[in-house]
Structures are given as C-alpha cells and as structure tokens.
Amino acid sequence: MPVFDVEVLTRHRPTAAPAAVTVVRAESASEHIAARRLRHETFVLEQGLFAGHDTDDSDADDRAITLLARDPAGEVVGTVRLAPASSQTAGRDLGWWTGSRLAVHPGARGHAAGVGSALVRAACAHAESEGVLRFDASVQAQNASLFRRLGWTLLAEEERYGRPHQLMTWPVDRIARLAARTKAPLGATLAPFGLQPYGLGGDGFRGDDGAPVPGIDLVAAADAILPSMVERDPEWAGWCAVLVNVNDLAAMGAEPVGLLDTFGARDRSFATRIVNGLAAASRRWQVPVLGGHTSLGVPASLSVTALGRTSTPVPAGGGRPGHRLSVTTDLGGGWRRGYRGQQWDSSSDRSTEELQTMGSFVARTAPAAAKDVSMAGLVGTLGMLAEASGCGATLDVAEVPLPTGASMGDWLTCFPGFAMITADRADAAPAPAGPAVSRSCGDLTTTPGVSLRWPDGRCTAALSPDVTGLGPA
Fold first, then answer.
1. How many CB atoms lie within 10 A of CB 9?
2. What gap in Å lies between CA 50 and CA 346, rounded to an integer?
3. CB-CB contact of 343 with 335 (8 Å)
4. Contact 1, 74 (CB under 8 A)
5. d(CA 39, CA 45)
6. Is residue 69 pLDDT above 70, yes or no?
7. For 43, which DSSP code?
8. Number of alpha carbons in the 13 Å side-chain half-sphere of residue 370
C-alpha cells in the first residue's frame, strides 16, 4: 500500500501537515468501507447534503481513487476521492479529473490538525501521477480558503446540492515543465547563429524542423539521439535516428534523398548494433545512408543528417490567426518497451508504402504551416508552431486523435512516432495520409500562448508565448 509524503510530492506547501498524519490509497474492502462510512456521516447525517446516501457514478468508475488519512493510532480521520470528470466526451478519459467527497472526522478538524490540507495535497499528487492535465473540485464556500492557500484558483461561483460552492482548479504544469526542460533555452543559446545571413533557417524558416539550403531546392535536417538511449537500446536508437529525420523533412514537404550518419561506440560489436538499426530503417523508408563518420573506442553517440528536395518548403511559421489546426497521426502500434508514456512505436510494423504515404502527406496537402511532433510533445510542438507564426493557439482536447492504450496526458507529452500539426484556412482539406488519421482540433488565435479547450467550453493555460525564445520566423 503506497504512503505519500505530501510535502515532497506537491509544489505548494504553505501549511505543513503534522508528520504523524499519513495519507494512503484505499486498497482493501475494509478501507473503502471506512471511507464510505465517514462520507455518510459527514454529507448525509451531519450536513444533510444528500438523502439516504452520497454515492454517485464516480463510485462505480474503476479508475476512481479513494485516499485515506490516518492518525498515529491508524484510525481513519479523513478521506477524499478523485476520478475522471463525468462530463467528458463519449466516456473518453481526456485527462480531466475532479476531486470530491473531502471529509474529515469532527475530532480531527481544524487548521492545526492539517488533515484536510494533507488530503488535498495528496489528491493533487495522485492526479498528476495519473497524467491528469486538468484537476477541478467543486468546493463548499466555507472550505474555499483552504484550497486557495494550497494554490488552487477560482473558475466560477456555483450552487450545488442547494448550497453555495466554488468551482476551483489545481494548476497542473506538466506540459509547461516539459517545454521548459526541452525547448526554453534554445533562443538564448542559439542566438549567435542568427547573426549570419540564412542563420537558423533564415527569414520565414527560423527555427524550423529543417533548413532550406540557399540557392537550391535542397532541405537539410539533423537530429541527435540521447546518448543514454543509444547505450540502452542501440538498434532502436538507429531506427529512431532515421525516423525523426525523415519526419523533419516530411514536415517541410520535402522528399528524402539520403542520410549521413555520425556515431560513436565503445567497440565494433556495439557499433554493429547501431548500424543494424540504421540500416533496417534505411531499407524500410527506402532512403540510403550516403556516408558519414564512425568513431570506435568512445562513449556511445549518434546523430544523423537528412537531405531532401522540394521547391516549395512548408514553414512552421506560416500560420495566421484564424487558421484551423489539424493533427495527423498514426494511431497504430503501442508504447515502446521500456519507454511507456514517453515513446510510441507506430513505425516498426508499417510497410514502405505506408511510411512513404504518411511522409508525403504535408507535400500533398501544402498547408500554410506544418511541424512534426517532437520530444516536446504535441502541445509543446504546437507552441513552437504558434511562436514561429507570431500568434497563439487553442487546442480542442476532445478532438485530438488518441490511440487505445494511451492516456491523453501521456499522448500530449510523448514522442508519438508519426504526428504532424498543420495550420491552414478553415476550408482547406488535408490530403489522404494512408494509415494516419487527420482531425481538425483547434485554431490559431491572437491571444499569445497555448490553451487547452475542454468539453465544458473552459480553457486552461498550457504554455506561455515564448516556448523556445526564437520568436516569430
């Protein structure tokens, strides 16, 4: 049974709960019975909010989590429940959860005891560990100050069960933290490159996935694989080095011509494993490795440069306010073993024809702007497209294509294998993308930053305007 140290797991800690109070997840039948008993005593007998019982549809949801607070003697002195919001579209878990049924035994109430604070903090920690992107609670008015002290913000005043309540939300920052970790330093770090003509892609292509080579119809792209990934899974690293580079060319509407590899390995045996991954992907996509550089007797490393051709490269910065956003992604496959929640493998089982059809999708669609989803995740990549286009974006969460076996929280923050974000006029239709699915799911706006729009019409902030600091293209 997991025990959560709520002071470590949450960010807002203005009032520390006594160390003797522990919060655990209810697992056994007796623990759930104890929680239901305390809820009944609080909400039915004491407060009269419900007649007969306080159970609802969330109690029947097998994803619901019940937390218990125990005193030093092990007695249950508090409980709270969290579960997917009931108003989500078609029963899909969009990463929108609610907390409810916060109850504290009368003898354990009060600011000094800290039981309510401990339960709320632990609920926030559990929600974030489940990949939740929006976490709300309808709080009785007399309890709203507790939530405000813990960092919650007000969404709306409302009446529920005949009593005044405040709809409040916990500021989940999973997407912002990912963007800050992977992309935020780029603008300042790469600034010296922008001092030269055509630096960082030149006007109109600043910070793009690839760079048009001045004077000819060639596009170049380059990606390095994390050394830890090369060391851990060299064949997969080789495969991914081709995948990400071909995707970069595809996002600009370029047809791949060839690859150049640079890798290091501790010995020939390890180098062979990297080469096997590169060669397998090269054959599958039908893109030759033209040459490169190999170093033996060194730590593991791998980077690939890709060359492609197009006379009309599609920029990431071509979007404008009012353009509709589409996401085109391959929902086949599943989580790569050892990378659950981080890397989705849809490519290793695809045929050459399928891969090439998806790879030519942007070229055949010719949108105003396009960008392939990178390690910054779908929302982080959308933020980069909006930043390059000099505008903001709103993403309709319920419309994002989601594969079976992935939570929305993971899907919006993982590397999805093949996924393209495009922006264009509302009347422009995407071309067929083979096995990939295209869906309209948002807009470019005049409001800076990226927000997530939920089925209840509310928007939550996901990213600030300066995802990379590179600015408009």
1. 15
2. 49
3. yes
4. no
5. 9
6. yes
7. I
8. 28
Tokens 């064949």 locate to: 235
User: What digits encode the pLDDT tens for the residues 100-153?
Assistant: 999 999 999 887 779 999 999 999 999 999 999 999 999 999 999 999 999 999
pTM of the model: 0.90
Amino acid at 403: P
Specify burial of residue 138 (Cβ count, 10 A radius: 0-12, 13-18, 19+). Answer: middle
Q: What is the pLDDT of residue 266?
A: 96
Q: Please tell me the total number of residues recorded for the chain in this structure.
A: 473
Closest CA to 162 of 50, 52, 280: 50
With cut-offs at 50, 70 and 90, classify the pLDDT of residue 90: low
Instruction: Round to whole Å and give the CA distance between 214 and 115.
Output: 65
Give the dihedral sign, CA 295/296/302/307. Answer: positive
Alpha-carbon distance values, 248 to 255, 370, 420, 444 (Å): 11, 10, 10, 22
Q: Using CA atoms, how far apart are residues 96 and 118, in angstroms rounded to an integer?
A: 22
Tell me the per-residue pLDDT of 216-227, one tens digit each, with 9 for 90 and over. 999 999 999 999
463 with 450: CB under 8 angstroms? yes
Structure tokens at 457: 């019409």
Provide the token pair at 4.
Answer: 């959560």
Quick check: 470 and 206 in contact, CB under 8 A? yes
CA distances (Å), origin 281, targets 90, 123, 245, 260, 343: 38, 44, 11, 13, 17
- Determine the 3-state secondary structure of 465 from DSSP: coil
Least Cα distance to 452 among 359, 388, 378, 363 occurs for 378
Looking at residue 217, its amino acid is: D
**Structure-token pair, residue 253:** 């509407």
Q: What average pLDDT score do residues 26-52 get?
A: 96
Lowest mean pLDDT, pick from 29-38, 199-208, 235-244, 324-333: 199-208
